[in-house]
Amino acid sequence: MLFGLSAVLARVATLGGMAGGQVTLIRFALGAAAVGALFLVRPGTFRPRRKLLLLSRGAFGGVAALLYFVAIEHIPAGEATLLNNTFPIWAVLLSLFLLDERPTFHLAVALLLASAGVFLVLGGGGGGGLALGLGWGEGAGILSAVMGGAAVTSIRALRATDNAPTIFFAFAVGGLLVSLPYAFAPWRVSAAGWLAAVGVGAVAFGAQLLMTEAYGALSVPEAALWQQLTPIMSYLWAFTIGETIGWGTVLGVLLGLAGVVYGSLLGHRPRKAASREAAMAAGIPAEEP
User: Are the C-beta atoms of residues 244 and 126 closer than 8 Å to each other?
Assistant: First the structure.
């Protein structure tokens, strides 16, 4: 839900005159400030363990986010979100070879159902069908998915040793570094554009922390299934900026939700008990606010 809202707010910001890279810069500046404040309030929360993997999380994730917002700047938010949200395909492939996490048959079926729902949502929403071109926006969206697949594979490997705020900090630093050159471009932005960009930073901060926590409890294929709801939520949130909906969208939403429920009930493999080290690395204790 939060990632979908973030995409629509980013679209509003770019329509208000802000470049995609500038939206990225604001998002990560606010995210870094928020997690930095958490580290000050909760001393000891910042606990980097696997520094090379944290570096890869920051690099791949930062580039993926920048390319995603560049795509939103050039093409509709729904289309950009669809292309970006193919990252679970790359993540599942990478986790297959790097983490030996093989999806169950039921989970593969559920992922196909949810993905079909995504295509129906984005193809049926405006009545004109889904037509993907080969422009700069589409290229940025596809490449952001490849980078995003590598990033979430790093997250899954990191969650055995590093907590969610530490992993998010690496992501925020990477995003700041790759988007910093956009700070020197002209900032001809409306008040609505600024407000939307600040909203992107706040919403995306919560979304990223929740996603990182999820990757500590789910395998990459399981988390990939749930994240197929992102484009659906993006389209539904777009009602607030005047988007229309068709019967294909309604069917797509229902199919996507059916895929999530099916995969949740039948798609899990028996999981081994977590080691004490992994349990301690889970982050802020569950009983604390």
Answer: yes
- Residue 50 and residue 66: Cα distance in Å, rounded? 24
Residues 6+ apart with CB under 8 A from 268: 104, 107, 222
């938010």: which residue's tokens? 77
Q: pLDDT tens-digit profile of 95-114?
A: 676 666 666 787 778 778 87
CA dist 20 to 16, 26, 29, 133, Å?
11, 10, 14, 19
pLDDT at residue number 267? 60
DSSP designation for 240: G
Task: Return d(Cα 210, Cα 143) in angstroms, integer.
Answer: 24
The two structure tokens encoding residue 26: 């604001």
Task: Write down the H helix ranges in 129-246.
Answer: 136-158, 164-179, 191-217, 220-226, 229-237
Reported residue count of the chain is 289
In 3D space, the residue among 54, 170, 152, 163 whose CA is nearest the CA of residue 98 turns out to be 152
pLDDT digits (tens, 9 = 90+) for 176-187: 999 999 999 999
127, amino acid identity: G
Q: How far apart are CA 180 and CA 28, in angstroms?
A: 10
Please write the tens of the pLDDT for every residue from 179-235: 999 999 999 999 999 999 999 999 988 888 888 788 777 776 677 677 778 877 887
* DSSP E strand stretches across the chain: none
Amino acid at 62: G
- Which tens digit of pLDDT belongs to each residue from 118-135? 677 656 544 444 444 467
**CB-CB contact of 222 with 110 (8 Å):** no
52-62 residues labelled b (16+ CB within 10 A) or e (exposed): ebbebbbbbbb
Q: What CA–CA distance (Å, rounded) separates 123 from 128?
A: 7
User: With bands split at pLDDT 50, 70 and 90, how would you rate the model's confidence at 258?
Assistant: confident
Global pTM value: 0.72
